[in-house]
Amino acid sequence: MLAIEKDQLKNDIWEIAKKFDNHRSGLMPVLQHIQRKYRYISSEAMQEAADAFRIHPVEVHGVVSFYSFLSTDKKGKYIVRLCRTISCDMAGKRDIARQLENDLKIKFGETTKDGLFSLEFTNCLGMCDQGPAMMVNEEVFTKVTPEGVADIIENYRRRFGPTVSQEKEVQHAHN
């Protein structure tokens, strides 16, 4: 991590911590912000959060490792989470999982080469009567069909444009 990135990370953490008077109740908002902005929680971020809240780094690591929506591994810009409950299973989750893997060309637990999508299973999304259900970041999709998966993925690609690596590929192809 570059020095300027470390400074930005430190500023991000301390700015949010200040809103909570550096009380440990602000730890989760800090971690959620770091996860959203940086797509993972680095050891540097955990140490800085521990310093900001005057707690031991092991406590911060315990929180990060406990919650599935927080990660020490860098994730894609868009995290696709498929519900793995029995009700979604009965509604056709296996077909949705297969379609996601085919469309993204990755397995669950992996991230696409362009860094755009990560694919994960998650526990209940609270949409048991509308399964199969999945989320892309914080947007929930219900009654998902295999055909609908392609539309959802393509919509994210169109809506948010090419990634940096795709832009480099296009530039390289034109040179």
Short description:
This protein has 175 residues and is an alpha+beta fold.
Name the helix and strand elements from N-terminus to C-terminus, one letter apiece. Answer: HHHHEHHEEEHH
- Quote the CATH topology of the largest domain: Glutaredoxin
Mean pLDDT: 89
Number of helices: 8
Distance between the termini: 31 Å
Largest sheet: 4 strands, mixed
Q: Note poorly predicted spans.
A: 164-175
Order of adjacent strands in the largest pleated sheet: 2-1-3-4
What percent strand?
5-15%
Instruction: Give the helix/strand class.
Output: alpha+beta
- The first-level CATH class of the largest domain is given as Alpha Beta
CATH superfamily of the largest domain: Glutaredoxin
Tell me the total number of β-strands: 4
Question: Would you write up a description of this structure?
Answer:
With 175 residues, the protein is α+β, with helices and mostly antiparallel strands. The protein has 2 domains: 3-66, Orthogonal Bundle (Arc Repressor Mutant, subunit A); 78-167, 3-Layer(aba) Sandwich (Glutaredoxin), CATH 3.40.30.10. The chain is built from 8 helices and 4 strands; from the N terminus they run ααααβααβββαα. A 4-stranded mixed sheet has the order 2-1-3-4, with helices on one face. β3 and β4 form a beta hairpin. The chain starts with a helix and ends with a helix. 26% of the residues are buried.
